[in-house]
Amino acid sequence: MSRVRTVLGDVAPGELGVCDAHDHLFLSSPKFRGQELEDAAAARAELMAFRAAGGAAVVQWTPYGMGRRAADLPVLSRATGVTLVCATGLHQAVHYAPELLDALHGRLAEVFVSELTDGIGTTGVRAGLIKVAGGFHAVDAHARWTMTAAAEAHHATGAPIAVHLELGTGALDVLDLLCGELGVPGDRVILGHLNRSPDPVTQREAAGAGCWLAFDGPSRAQHATDWRMPQSVRDLAEAGFGDRLLLGGDTVLAGARSVDGGPGMPYLLRRVRPRLVAELGAELVDRILSEHPGRAFGAEWG
C-alpha cells in the first residue's frame, strides 16, 4: 500500500490535504550568503500563514548538506498542524564545499537509503523523497553521479525522485538517464521548474513519459514565465496530461517569505490557485493541489 513518508510518520496519500508540492523552510548554501533560510521562528510564521490560507501540507525539497534542520521539522509540524515531508539527496556541486562532496564519493546511495529508512542523523526523521539536480540544458558529470545514486536508492526503497531542472532546462536528458538508462519508472520522477522554460513540446514529451510536472514559482528572474504558466498548464490538461501536474512555491531566499515581505507559501493559494481555476476549473485545480501530491510522493516503501 502506498504511503507518504512525513516527518511524523507514514500517512495515506489522501491525508495530505492541500499541498505545496515544492518548497523550503530551511536552506543554506555558499551561493546564497546572507539570504539563508535559517530562522525557525520565521519558518513557523510562514507555515501558519500558509495554514491560514487553506494549506495543509508542504514538501520540503532541501537535500543533504544544505541546512535542512531535520530535527526542527517535527516540532514545526506539530505546532502548526501542517504536514511536512523532508528530502534526502544532493543538489548541484556549487552548493557544497568540495571536501564534503569528496567525503560522499563511493557511498552516496548508501547515505540516501539510510536517510530514507533509518532516519537523518540522530533525529529519527525519515526522508520521504530524493532531491537531485540537472545542469543547464544538460546532465553533467555531477548530475550523473547524483542521479545514479538516486536511482539505486529508489530501487532499494521505492522513494520518489524530485529533480531541480536548472532554469527549467534539460528535462528530456534527465528522463533519458533516470527512466531510460537507470530504469526508474516515469511516475516515480518529479520534474521541477518546468515553468521556467515554457517549451510546450518538452513539457508534453516529459508528461508522455509518465513523470510528474511541477510548476513552482513565482519566477525570480523571468517574469514572463509567470503569465505563461496558466496557459502551459491548460495546454497540458487539454492534451490529456491533467493528471501529471503539481504546484509549488519554491521559497528559496529569506526575502521571498511572505512574513518578510515576499510572496512566500501563501501566494500559491492566494494568487496562483484562483488564476488556474479561471483556466482549468475548480475541480482539476483541487485535484492538482490535494490529490496529485499524495500520488506523486507516495511509495510502497521497501
TrEMBL record:
Its cofactor is a divalent metal cation. InterPro entries: Metal_Hydrolase (IPR032466), Phosphotriesterase (IPR001559). Binds 2 divalent metal cations per subunit. Keywords: Hydrolase, Metal-binding. One of its GO terms (molecular function) is hydrolase activity. It comes from the Bacteria. The modification N6-carboxylysine is found at residue 131. Zn(2+) 1 binds at residues 22, 24, 131, 250. Zn(2+) 2 binds at residues 131, 164, 193. PROSITE patterns: PHOSPHOTRIESTERASE_2 (PS51347). Belongs to the metallo-dependent hydrolases superfamily. Phosphotriesterase family. This is Phosphotriesterase.
